[in-house]
Amino acid sequence: MNLSALPPVEIGDTAGTVQLHRRKLDLVRQVVATHGTHTSRRVLLVEFVTADGVRGWGECGAPDDSGYTGETADAAATFLEGIAPGVIAGRRSLTAASVRALVAAIDPDAASRHPMAVAALETAVLDAQLRTTDTAFESLLGSPPKRAALAGATLGNQGPDVSTAAAVDAVIAGALEAVALGYPRLKLKIGPGLHTTDIVRELRAVLDDGVVLLGDANGAYRPDDVAH
């Protein structure tokens, strides 16, 4: 990906150049995964505003807790609040290609401790560059995609406390609803004790061959769990 092909964007009022936004998204239905039950998702958005008023956006994927990735949304927000002023201080322009080096000059270990936060800042600047030059992101990839990306939906499990039949019925109902809404790619939360083999077997049987079915265990399985 040739980010250097894009011209830099001009920086205006540094006090408002980088802004953070916290939002809470309520899920359509709860998602039961191996690391817990979720009814909502907090999202951290990074907004980068150029001197011309063009707004670029980046999303930080860090979760609320550190049990899965080690980087949390709160820690990412605190890090960005501290690092962003230093990245843009004294500069009249900025590029996404330069963000990582500028961050490293202030905090050499930042990319390893806060990879999603750094990526969100890079993405916000890149989005501003793309919007400023009216450039499609796909043009940076070297060749146009052969097909459109498949929209996906996540299917939560009902957890180990319900019967196998009830768990299977609930997931199948959710899957058929998602397909009817136009989602050709489904990701099912799986894991030890979550009726996984029964659900996957029954779900694959009722779905059309063109529907992509993925299983996401969030690192819950070990080599000796292969039979499950």
Structural account:
The protein is α/β, with parallel strands linked by helices. It has two domains: 136 residues, Enolase-like, domain 1 (2-Layer Sandwich), CATH 3.30.390; 74 residues. A hairpin with a 5-residue loop joins strand 3 and strand 4. The two termini are 40 Å apart. The strands form three sheets. The protein has a three-stranded antiparallel sheet.
What is the CATH architecture annotation of the largest domain?
2-Layer Sandwich
CATH topology of the largest domain: Enolase-like, domain 1
Helix-strand string: EEEEHEHHHEHEHE
Low-confidence stretches: none
Percentage of residues in DSSP E strands: 15-25%
Query: Any idea how many domains?
Result: 2
Largest sheet: 3 strands, antiparallel
Major β-sheet strand ordering: 2-3-4
- Quote the average pLDDT: 88
User: How many β-strand stretches?
Assistant: 8
Distance between the termini: 40 Å
Any idea what the shape is? elongated
Number of alpha- plus pi-helical segments: 6
Percent helix range: 25-40%
Query: What gyration radius follows from the Cα positions, in whole Å?
Result: 21 Å
CATH class of the largest domain: Alpha Beta
Q: In the CATH hierarchy, what is the superfamily of the largest domain?
A: Enolase-like, N-terminal domain
